[in-house]
């Protein structure tokens, strides 16, 4: 290994205790470590209502940026929420910087679907109507939309989750 590799910080993977990734992130950041916990927005049904919720992209795993022979790795084991440093054999494996940057960009781009306008053409991405074109009719609450489909030479109104619809430009 060359000496330059020891001077440049790399990303490593930490496993958190079950459902404690946020706690591990907070405690590691309090100790001065640079930590990345990728999160995504998902649709959940709670109390018979659809709601958007944010959750970790990789449940129970987070990334930490460390300098191999410079940073103090010992506090990691006793940090609340942290289970262990992921290793292969006895060696922690560095994650490619470009992969981490790509994940960061993807997470930053997920700001939610753009607003649709009545009469706008859309494509259905998922479900039994996947691949079909439709016309956006109106929103139905926060999570669903009414679409106008042409099926069997007749216009039919269907209601689908907003996440299954993409605007066609």
3D architecture notes:
The relative contact order is 0.17. This protein has 169 residues and is α+β, with helices and mostly antiparallel strands. The mean pLDDT is 85. It starts with a helix and ends with a strand. It has four helices and 13 strands. A five-stranded antiparallel β-sheet has the order 12-11-10-9-13, with no helix packed on it. The longest helix has 13 residues, at 97-109. β10 (133-140) and β11 form a beta hairpin.
β-strand percent reads: 35-45%
Q: So what's the overall shape?
A: elongated
- Which structural class best describes the helix and strand composition? alpha+beta
* N-to-C order of helices and strands: HEHEEEEHEEEHEEEEE
Q: Rg from C-alpha positions?
A: 22 Å
Number of helices: 4
Counting DSSP E segments of at least 2 residues, the number of strands comes to: 13
Report the major sheet: 5 strands, antiparallel
Average pLDDT rating: 85
The first-to-last residue Cα distance is 51 Å
Residue windows where pLDDT falls under 50 for at least 5 positions: none
Question: How much helix, percentage-wise, in residues?
Answer: 10-25%
How are the strands of the largest sheet arranged? 12-11-10-9-13
Key attributes of the depicted protein:
169 residues; alpha+beta; 4 helices; 20% helix; elongated
List the helices and strands and how they pair.
Layout: H1 3-7, E1 10-16, H2 21-30, E2 34-36, E3 39-46, E4 49-56, E5 61-66, H3 74-78, E6 82-85, E7 87-88, E8 91-92, H4 97-109, E9 121-124, E10 133-140, E11 144-151, E12 154-161, E13 165-167
Antiparallel strand pairs: 1-5, 1-6, 2-5, 3-4, 7-8, 9-10, 9-13, 10-11, 11-12
């Amino acid at each position: 290994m060359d000496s330059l590799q020891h001077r440049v910080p790399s990303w490593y993977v930490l496993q958190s205790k079950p459902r404690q990734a946020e706690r591990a992130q907070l405690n590691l950041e309090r100790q001065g470590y640079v930590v990345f916990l990728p999160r995504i927005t998902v649709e959940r049904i709670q109390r018979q209502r659809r709601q958007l919720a944010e959750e970790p992209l990789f449940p129970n795993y987070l990334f930490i940026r460390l300098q191999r022979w410079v940073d103090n790795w010992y506090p990691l084991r006793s940090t609340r929420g942290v289970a262990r440093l992921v290793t292969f054999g006895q060696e922690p494996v560095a994650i490619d910087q470009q992969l981490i940057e790509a994940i960061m960009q993807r997470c930053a781009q997920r700001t939610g679907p753009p607003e649709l306008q009545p009469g706008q053409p859309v494509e259905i991405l998922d479900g039994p109507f996947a691949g079909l074109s439709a016309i956006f009719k109106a929103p139905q609450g926060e999570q669903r939309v009414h679409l106008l489909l042409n099926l069997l030479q007749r216009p039919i109104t269907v209601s689908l989750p907003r996440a299954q619809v993409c605007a066609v430009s």
